[in-house]
Each structure stands twice: as structure tokens, then as C-alpha cells.
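Hi R.,

Here are the chain sequences for the assembly we discussed:
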Amino acid sequence: MTIAFYLLGALVLFCGLNVVLRRNPVHAALWLVAGSLAQAGVFVTLGADLLAAVQVLVHAGAVVVLFLFVVMTVGSAGDRRRFGGQAPLGAAVALAVAVLLAAAARAADLRMLNVLGPSSAAEIGRWLLGTHALAFEAASLLLLAALVAAVVASRSDA
Amino acid sequence: MIAVVPASHVLLLAALLFAVGLAGVLGRRNLIVLLLSAELMLNAVTLNLVALGRARGSFEGETIALFVITIAAAEVAVGLALLVALFRARGTLDADAHDGLRG
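And here is the predicted structure of the full complex:
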């Protein structure tokens, strides 16, 4: 399982790099599907089973399909140039952020992750409906608001 | 059976993934790839939450990660609706073409 974590982690990074570097947006969306599936695999190796299932269902199954619907509507012409004017500066900033986060990760005194057993959906349900019940209800309101906003924002002038 | 992995390795993976997504958001011109890179950043945040929750010995990190995935889906819906509206206004998906607010 440990080797599986490192292999799947490398796969997630590789898929992420391809999302950012591909010229065709449809290819980038498909690399994001692959990355989401690999990330679900990482969740399984860490013991977060419910989250792996939700990741496959929502992220890989719904979000990227929504992207592909929009690409079909709008057209997927690859652009003349991939990167904007500030792309080297953006890459430098991203590298600085990565170095900072990696330093923080190394400095934190955290224990190994397999001390806790595999997660149980019952306990996550207790967290959702107990301590985070308000956030749970607010999330459903947020989804309703997002639904209405998406319908209104994408209407043509009629 | 769970991977015997120190938490700092998982946090490092999440940091690298976040940086890749950030470079994509800052550097790419196509709006669709920009939104895809933002999704990548949210994936990294989810991984971070799971690792930190388990390192502190509770499943609360995974619960909050569920909320993050929910909010990511809502954000994608609204972001894509705005993208469609922008495309109808300008006829292109180039991020540099929408410079109406530039002074």
C-alpha cells in the first residue's frame, strides 16, 4: 500500500502537469479526469474510502462532464499561444508557494497516517449531521443559489 | 491496510499539486484550462485536509473535504455559466481579450 501511495501520487502530479501544459482544452479536461481518478486512488491508500467514492462521482463524473458540455457548446479551438505574458512570473510565484508549503510541511510535527484506521461512513455521517449540521444545511442553500446563478448567467438576452 | 506514510509526504504532494494548479491559473490564456487548473488547486486542498485530519486523529478532515468538493462543484457550475456569457460577449475564449476594465 505504501508503494501504491507513491506511485499514485506521482501519477496525480503527472496528470496535473498535463492539465496545465496541454494545448487542446478537451485534452486538458481528460487529463483532469485521469488526475481525479488517481487522486481517488490516493484517498483509498490513505484510508479515506467515502471520500474516494465521492471524488469519483462528483469530481471525475460530474464536474469534468460539465466542462466537456461547455466545450462542446463553445468550441475547442486551440489558441495561437498557450501562455500569457506573465507565465514565467506565474511559474516563479507557484514555485515559491510550493517551497513555502513544503517547508511548513516538514516543520510540522505530525504523526504517521496509518495510526487511525480506515474511515467509516457512519462516523463521517455523525460529523456531518452533528457538529457540522449548520454547514451541511448552508451547503444545500449554496447549491441552490449556484443553480439559479448558473441558469441566469448563461441565458442569452431574451 | 493503510499506507505507512508520514504526513509530511502527503502534504508535500498536495503542495506540489497546488503549485502546478497555481501556475496554470496564472499562466494559461484559455479560460477553460484556467478553470481546470483551479479545480486542480481544489483537489490539492482536499488532499491536504484528509492528511491533516488523519494526522490529528479524527475524521473531521474528511468531512470538511466533502464540503470542499461540494463547493467546488457549485463554483464550476457558476464559473462555466460566466464563461459562456463571456464567450457570447466577445466571441473568444482568450483571457487577454477581456480587458474592458483596463484603465
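Chain A has a mean pLDDT of 88. The radius of gyration of chain A is 19 Å.

Let me know if anything looks off.

Best,
T.
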